[in-house]
Amino acid sequence: MIVVRVLVFAVGMVGVVTTFSSAIRTVVVPRSESLLLQRIVFTAVRVAMLPVQRIMRSDPVRQERLMAYYAPFGLIALAITWIALITLAFTPMYWAIGVDSWREATRISGSSVTTLGFAATGADWSGTVLSVVEAVIGLILVALLISFLPTMYAEFSQREQTVAYMAVRAGTPPSGVAMLERFHRIEAVDELDEIWVRFEAFFNELSETHTSFLALPFFRSPNPARSWLTTSGAVLDAAALRMSVVDVPAEPRCALAIRAGYSALREIAFAYGFVIPADPEPTDPISVTRAEFDDAVAQMRDTGIPIVADLDQAWADFSGWRVNYDLPLIAIAGLVSAPPAPWSSDRTLPVRRPILGSMLMRDHLDRA
Q1: What are φ and ψ of residue 220, in 5° steps?
Q2: Which segments of the chain have a pLDDT < 70?
Q3: pLDDT per residue as tens digits for the range 276-299
Q4: Rounded to 5 degrees, what are φ and ψ at 338?
């Protein structure tokens, strides 16, 4: 009987360590870790929302409003899961040290983790120590959440300021072609250099924050037609068109913005388990067709933007830039169910993806 109690205590301890480790790695560790518990919880929340979303399929506005609740509900569900698992993990430990019944052990565990103190463990010192340890863990989890949520919402607010800033310059939904046309019409092409510098910094911030807080990419913009991802895609497309199609001298700051952008998108895609080539060839296929490219060039020429003479070379150059961010852009768009935007969330590509990504991509295909 003692051996059984020792084994049961050990199982409970493993559960405590695993759950507490998941919380620490999610909130404290400053690096991307795709944890199984996170994926299970967020997948469960997404599965629960899918029937309602399908009912709203004919109303994109209501569907988008529903998706705005996904990330917040996922975080709340994750916090509840941590507390519930800690309670369940301590229950066999209380039983193992001599609590008479599983029901009473569960009652003591719930009382301790919430620090409510409505159940006592008795005078035995081992029960007292176990209760104190569980109460401390419960307090730590609460403290982590109190510090974690404001930090993440601060990053969200800063990100959305840039998204709103670009809505004026690239339209809603954002488009790289529209961005170049607007700057040309108001004779502010020289101010594009400021955009490249600003977005190089923006992409570097995305790389840090959206891999450290893996729920952050799912938080949606206040305007349902905007998205951090489609905005990123529009800026990268504008930069790629500027470097390949527009007949002006090359701009190194533009090239640096593209490099920062595709590096950030790749790191975010890697954090979610997508299998994406680290160094694609310039001749690899992209999701933008030559016909779409020619239509964009014609539209830009009609606006008065100077276009290079050799469009075949321009297409090769554009493809060489786009191939660097094409696959991660499309993959993440499906993962987060980004609102429709040209050359990003309006298309799909075959890409190996995790369970969560697979489910969201299937729903993205259904909507498309």
Answers
A1: -100, 155
A2: 29-35, 118-123, 351-368
A3: 888 899 999 999 999 999 999 999
A4: -65, 145
> Which two three-digit tokens encode residue 348?
């799909």
What's the sign of the alpha-carbon dihedral 321, 339, 145, 87?
A: negative
- How far apart CA 169 and CA 195 sit, in angstroms, is 10
How far is the C-alpha of 212 from the C-alpha of 273, rounded, in Å?
14
| Nearest of 95, 90, 87 to residue 5 by alpha carbon | 95
Pick from 324, 345, 325, 343: nearest CA to 335: 345
The Cα 326–Cα 345 span in angstroms is 11
Task: Look at residues 283, 154, 143, 296 and name the one whose alpha carbon lies nearest to residue 234.
Answer: 296
Measured between alpha carbons, how far is 366 from 355 in angstroms, rounded to an integer? 17
DSSP string, 20-60: HHHHHHHHT--S----HHHHHHHHHHHHHHHHHHHHTTT-H
Question: For residue 234, which of 304, 181, 294, 161 has the smallest C-alpha distance?
Answer: 181
Partners of residue 342 on adjacent β-strands = none
Could you tell me how many residues make up the chain? 368
> Which tens digits make up the pLDDT trace of 58-67?
777 777 788 8
> Cα separation of 118 and 27, whole Å?
30
pTM for this model (two decimals):
0.83
Placement of tokens 């997508």 in the chain: 274
Closest CA to 178 of 166, 170, 186: 170
Read off the tokens for 205.
Answer: 């911030």
DSSP string, 67-105: HTTHHHHHHHHHHHHHHHHHHHHHHHHHHHTT-S-HHHH
Gap between the Cα atoms of 263 and 267, Å rounded: 6
Look up residue 276 and give its two tokens: 């994406």
Question: What is the DSSP secondary structure assignment for residue 215, as one 8-state letter?
Answer: T
